[in-house]
C-alpha cells in the first residue's frame, strides 16, 4: 500500500500543486510594558475597574516562506470611583510561521486570522501575569474572534478602495 502511494506521488500528482506546509517556528514577546502611574494611592480605595481594550494584528514577510505575525494588545484599566488610571499594560506577542503552498487571499487569511488565533492565548497569559505582579486582581481577557476581525478589516479596505475610485 505504501508502495502504491509512493508510485502515485512520483507520477506527478503532487507536482501539479505546491505542497501546503504550515509550521510554527518560534513564539516570543516582541514588546512588553506595564505602568501603574497612580500607585500606591490606587490601592487605598475600593477597586471598581473599567477596562479599555485595544487589539491589532500585523504581519510581514521575513524571507521566502517565513512570516512574522504580531498581536498587539493594550489594556488600560481605570478605577470607576475616581477615573484615575490604575494600570496600563501592553504586549506585542509575536510568532514566526513557515508557510508554503498558499498565496493571495488564502495566505492573507492565514496571516490575518489563523496565526493571531495561535498567538492570542500567549498574549492573554502574559497580560494576566503582568497585572498580577502589579498587585492587581487578574485580568482575564475573553477570547477574540480573529476571523470576524479579519472580515471587518477586509470590508473596511474594500469600502475605502470603492470611495477612492
UniProtKB/TrEMBL annotation:
Membrane-traversing stretches: none
Cellular localization per UniProt: Cytoplasm
Cellular component terms per the entry's GO annotation: cytoplasm
Record-linked InterPro entries: SecB (IPR003708), SecB-like_sf (IPR035958)
Protein transport as UniProt keyword: yes
Signal peptide: none
Molecular function, one GO term: unfolded protein binding
SUPFAM superfamilies from the UniProt entry: SecB-like
Keywords assigned: Chaperone, Cytoplasm, Protein transport, Translocation, Transport
GO BP field: protein folding; protein tetramerization; protein transport
Pfam families documented for this protein: SecB (PF02556)
UniProt keyword Cytoplasm present: yes
PANTHER family: PROTEIN-EXPORT PROTEIN SECB, PTHR36918
Family under the similarity heading: Belongs to the SecB family.
Subunit structure: Homotetramer, a dimer of dimers. One homotetramer interacts with 1 SecA dimer.
Chain's role: One of the proteins required for the normal export of preproteins out of the cell cytoplasm. It is a molecular chaperone that binds to a subset of precursor proteins, maintaining them in a translocation-competent state. It also specifically binds to its receptor SecA.
Full protein name: Protein-export protein SecB
Amino acid at each position: 500500500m505504501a508502495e502504491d502511494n509512493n508510485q502515485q506521488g512520483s507520477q506527478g500528482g503532487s507536482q501539479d500543486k505546491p505542497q501546503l506546509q504550515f509550521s510554527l517556528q518560534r513564539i516570543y514577546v516582541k514588546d512588553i510594558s506595564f505602568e501603574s502611574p497612580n500607585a500606591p494611592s490606587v490601592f487605598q480605595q475600593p477597586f471598581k475597574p473599567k477596562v479599555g481594550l485595544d487589539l491589532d494584528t500585523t504581519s510581514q514577510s521575513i524571507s521566502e516562506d517565513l512570516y512574522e505575525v504580531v498581536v498587539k494588545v493594550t489594556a488600560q484599566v481605570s478605577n470607576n470611583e475616581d477615573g484615575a488610571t490604575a494600570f496600563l499594560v501592553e504586549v506585542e506577542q509575536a510568532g514566526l510561521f513557515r508557510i508554503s503552498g498558499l498565496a493571495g487571499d488564502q495566505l492573507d487569511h492565514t496571516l490575518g486570522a489563523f496565526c493571531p488565533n495561535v498567538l492570542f492565548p500567549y498574549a492573554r497569559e502574559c497580560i494576566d501575569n503582568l497585572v498580577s505582579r502589579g498587585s492587581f486582581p487578574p485580568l482575564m481577557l475573553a477570547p477574540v474572534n480573529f476571523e470576524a476581525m479579519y472580515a471587518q478589516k477586509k470590508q473596511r479596505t474594500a469600502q475605502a478602495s470603492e470611495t477612492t475610485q
